[in-house]
Design goal:
homotrimer, 350 residues, alpha+beta, Thiol Ester Dehydrase, Chain A, 2 domains, twelve-stranded antiparallel β-sheet, 9 helices, 21% helix, globular
Chain lengths: 350, 350, 350
């Protein structure tokens, strides 16, 4: 449904089989590096990935997320006016160049707004590879306008979603073997171990990245994400923003890449607990990132790898001192320069 | 001849063997998606392409066109001041990642302009793969200045070119088998069949795309197209445009990608009947696209697939209402916002 | 050491094993073409490369340079305020898609500046493939600030570096066989031989290329080069430049691509004798290139291939007449429009 669903077009339990399976090429990894600055060691080197048990280099986890997300846009959020949140995002299985991703969603919640001109739609999305194996699952909710404010209201139904992915639900690739990680750790440039991530530590990451229109539009097209707010300068000139919006997922990728500069040996993004696009970002904005170590978890039956919970914050157009003065996530009111809060689990060698 | 031929440098029957064969990588498909928003199902998924009889995913037909076209620029149109038209463009055979394209052209017509300072050069171009199999053929004509207005005029010779590719000349890949298309049609997100394309139907496609300098220059370089008007801002500041021109082929790709949003199951671009770059496009312009169903043709000995003839129009910097008010191609005078008219045959499952 | 070393952090003989090995995909070649306009025949076509003895198409030599260089940035030049020069750069072995590059450097010289607030660091860098074979070696020196001007000065030690790579040190791939080059020379579009490169000849290359922020940032990220001056518009607004700087290596690539338009059959960049980034380049600048034939050398035990020494000059925002009036490299004072002087050996069929 390329022209997009209104709120009335969704029903609880509705199953949406999304179009356009996408085969991922080695060159997609290159393009993702060029567009975001990603430095995932498991994606950068075939040999490094093999030394840890994988068949070859992995598609970056966030690239998998964006492609699966992009496949849902035409059916779920083409007409959405806000992407409200994510929950229970789990990266279930590694994806390799040559794999083809297909995606389905189910409507798991509906809630009309008090103004009765729009509603919140909750979906559970599952991306699978060409063997039918699930590689990614997430819940998200979006604000979608009604076609007609006079349409009857659906029964309110909001799903129960976890506020945090419990340790025993954090996916760990079965082939991953970090017993010999320290022999090859030169490749990551870091000696940090799981036990070095002390809860309460804060990293104000050193780099900054300015976003150009061509960068975010290329990234968003790469993911087959067709949301018009990112592409139509002529139309957006008449919006309340006056210009194109940057896809929120691009902000996640930029912030995660900036964070890689100091989150040593954070090898895989295993799960997200929650995510919020706190403020819009536009071309010309310069992003900085801060990470807070929120928790650490042992993983069932694994003594080679543990999970670290990070609260990642992206802010815009602040200098280093201003970023250092930002409070941790949760402080109110939120600083208007904050554009993203993402709470995730990452896997780190023990 | 990298510095380019003047009108005097062409002779009827002249054969031009173009430099720089180009091997196409899987990553070229990714890059083409990133630069244009292309959503061709046969290019997006290995498995979908296999389910319809192909060895693997296809290189997007327009990417093949641009690479073959780009190979001709140094010899044919490096000094051209206008790309006047295309005729009898036929996509003869699918191209796959790993294939290498090489191109030759023959001068098939010459006509000096009445001002005697330039002339129209007609060429027939053929692109072939590494096995020597022809994959694309087209005629085009360009306006090329004379080195010296006093040079003698050549005998005028204009080729006879078809105004439309007849149904029995529309190429259909021999391996293409759409008998079981409907089992996998979920992948395209559309239930449209050949018979649903009613002659006279008009689609004002919902999306819009703004063009950035970096986008069109990257696309044009990707095709090894070296025409200076696209790259030299310093030099073009002194031209009548005052700025760089966008490669007309990039407009074709953007318009075709916008059209994919509603031309359901138009799986392959089989042939172009004609094409006109009606007005120049510049970075900052926002494109919209409209398709008119002009004709429908049965194909010899095929009951699984038919051809649909589309007149695709791209316009710039109009809103939806203004696009909806544009007349069909052929109305005079042409609206100055129209930048492209492309008349092509596409293949649709029956 | 992602936050970067100060001058005090370097010691003579120090060995730096750089992070993040990088596997190169076919799509990296496509992306390099899109970002720079590269037209290397040996990188463009699998079949052409095979016809000259290689297993398949080569990764462009400058792409190899940029990736190896990029790997050193975090350890060597993250805090550098100037990239002062290169010497003894030798492309030791071809690199193919699928290869993974890893890099080490050794500190070979240290010299504090007279102001005692910074110092010059000389490093020898070696990039190797996944088999441990060296593919590239170079010396470079950078100006790095001191953490504390009061820190003691190290003993001055400056390395002895060749001003030119001698003919018997110019690497020639052992598998390269140009005995049958002339059968396939149609692919390069040029009939130029080694003997056609007359010493003293000057080529003012016909094209020009304008640089966009998105182009240079994408290229620089592609190489995992994390130097902040290229990415942080907010921070650079307060610098003496007032804006982002273009990575000097991007200028080399653009100039080399412009030069390919007339340096016929210059098939491989074998070595650099020296290189200087004479002035900064910014987005919006338009580059032109001039090549001077400085020398020609026979190569030991090879009668099919010879070396040509080129002094390549890139200038910005000049028209053709102004470029034609530029003196050869070495004239003083240097024209402020000159941004690059690169003295290199290229291999040409005899």
């Amino acid at each position: 449904m390329s022209s997009g669903r209104y709120f009335e077009d969704f029903t609880i339990g509705q199953r949406l089989i999304h179009a356009l399976p996408r085969t991922i090429h080695g060159g997609d990894i290159s393009l993702y590096i060029a567009l975001t600055g990603d430095r995932s060691p498991l994606s950068s080197s075939t040999e490094f990935a093999r030394s840890l048990g994988f068949a070859r280099e992995l598609v970056p986890d966030l690239l998998v997320f964006h492609i699966v997300f992009g496949q849902t846009v035409g059916d779920v959020s083409y007409r959405a006016v806000a992407n409200l949140g994510y929950s229970d995002v789990r990266f279930l299985r590694p994806v390799f160049p040559g794999d083809t991703l297909s995606t389905e969603s189910e409507v798991i919640g509906l809630r009309e707004t008090s103004g009765k001109d729009a509603g919140v739609v909750y979906v559970r999305t599952i991306g699978s590879n060409q063997k039918g194996q699930e590689v990614l699952t997430f819940a998200r909710w979006v604000l979608v306008p009604k076609r007609n404010p006079a349409s009857p209201s659906p029964t309110t139904s909001t799903p129960t979603l976890p506020t945090v992915v419990e340790a025993d639900a954090i996916p760990v690739p079965t082939v991953l073997n970090l017993q010999r990680f320290w022999d090859v750790s030169w490749a990551t440039g870091s000696a940090m171990r799981w036990s070095d991530y002390q809860v309460g530590t804060r990293f104000d990451h050193p780099g900054a990245m300015t976003i150009e229109e061509a960068d975010h539009m290329q990234a968003t097209r790469l993911y087959h994400n067709s949301a018009q707010v990112h592409f139509d300068a002529h139309g957006m000139a008449g919006s309340r923003f006056g210009k194109r919006l940057v896809y929120g997922g691009h902000i996640i990728s930029i912030a995660a890449a900036l964070a890689q500069q100091s989150l040593g040996n954070a090898l895989l993004m295993a799960a997200w607990n929650s995510g919020t696009h706190a403020n819009p970002t536009f071309a010309g904005d310069t992003l900085r990132a801060t990470s807070h170590v929120v928790a650490r978890a042992e993983l069932p039956e694994r003594n080679d790898v543990g999970a670290v919970r990070i609260a990642l914050v992206a802010s815009k157009n602040l200098n280093e001192a201003e970023v250092a003065a930002l409070p941790a996530p949760g402080a109110t009111p939120r600083n208007p320069a904050v554009v993203l809060e993402l709470d995730f689990w990452t896997l780190v060698p023990r």
